[in-house]
Amino acid sequence: MMQEANLRKLRKSTPSQRRSRLDQALSGQLDPAPSQLSLADWLDFSAIMVENSYGCMPVPLGLASGFLIDGHELSLPLATEEPSVIAAASFAATQIAHCGGFTTWADQSIMQAHVYLNDCPSDVMGRFEKSLVQLTSLCTALLTNMKSRGGGLLGISAKHLDDTCVRICVEVNVCDAMGANLLNSCAEALRNPLEQAGLGKVLMAILSNNSVDRKAGARFGAPIGDLSRAGYKGLEFAQRIVAAWKVASLDRDRAVTHNKGIMNGISAFALASANDTRALEAAAHAWASKSGSYQPLTRYWIQDNKLCGEIELPLAFASLGGAVSFHPMAQYNLALLGRPDARELARMAAALGLAQNFAAIGALVGEGIQAGHMRLHARRLAWQVGARAEQIEGLATTIFEEKAFTLGAAKKLWNTDK
Ligand code: MEV
Fold first, then answer.
1. Element (DSSP H or E) covering residue 7
2. Interval 15-57: pLDDT, tens
3. pTM
4. Which of 97, 150, 304, 307 falls between 20 and 30 A from 206, CA-CA?
5. Protein residue closest via CA to atom 4 of ligand 1
6. Are 390 and 417 in contact (CB under 8 A)?
7. Nearest residue CA, atom 2 of ligand 1?
8. Is any atom of ligand 1 closer than 6 Å to the C-beta of 360?
9. 373 among known catalytic residues
């Protein structure tokens, strides 16, 4: 893995210089090395991954740099089509690193699968107790490998959903896997035994993505004196951050956007490691509504002259199995991160989500969000009118300074520059 100090130096390089330095740093570690894959290889890969495939969709990859997480300096690979996400995360991470960085934590990787039974008899719970030994040994046999890795079956329980509908819950520590296949296999293996034991008629068996026992969190405390921004002194700026959080807790319309910004980082990090972005999003938004009203996933308060920020949410990240182990770019990005395990990935994701949110609301209550966006828009316009490589930055600066934010105006500047 490349040292963090060297990764930081890459900030001033071009994308191709950056890529070749990263390739060099990872050389010999990856088989296949993504840079050696041809278009035909990627087409083969797409056909293995999905049905009726015709290619792969390039999504920009970038490093969100400047993170200090539990004392470790880190740059996080993000795959995102949205400008500003990486710049914003890096900006906030660097600011928080100067104040001691993030402290993070993560639960064990506990997931559940459920078998839903209909037409259950009135003595269904007694029948369940009687068959528990058999059900447990069936699942234990399926989870032998997981047990040898330190995980495995934690328990099987039953609960009435209504008078005749019962849910059987299988709880498993899936260690570094996402666990979907394993959980679904366990749940499906119980279908026949449950029916044979007369517990009812099986409707369906599936894992739950509501991974509430697989949470991770992060927090930071930044001295108020270090926080002045956009003409606001430190204390006023900190109070504005807390007020922005309060608005999100009072107004669902704002909370959705607040949380969307958090997931800008977390989903991009998940995509870069080929984790299941939809599972993460579903669990995050369910968690946001756990009180019955949709709430912000972060929290801010002022204490001991510090602005404190915190996030905690379900983060079912895998570092092994499925697309994570198979996708060459996911392997590349995990190698860049020094091959973290699943819980370490979840802790990084929590810190990233908090950084992303701090950056977004900092801009919103500071100078406003459009200033940063328009700079990136200028770079896109520069590319669209034909600027390439080092020409892009020069033309984008002129577009930004002249406020030439339409294609026509940018074209005019490009033609004059040439
Ligand atoms: C944009 O993708 C995300 C933000 O809207 C998040 C927020 O408003 O907190 C900037």
1. helix 4-9
2. 999 999 999 999 989 988 999 999 999 999 999 999 999 999 9
3. 0.92
4. 150
5. 261
6. no
7. 261
8. yes
9. yes
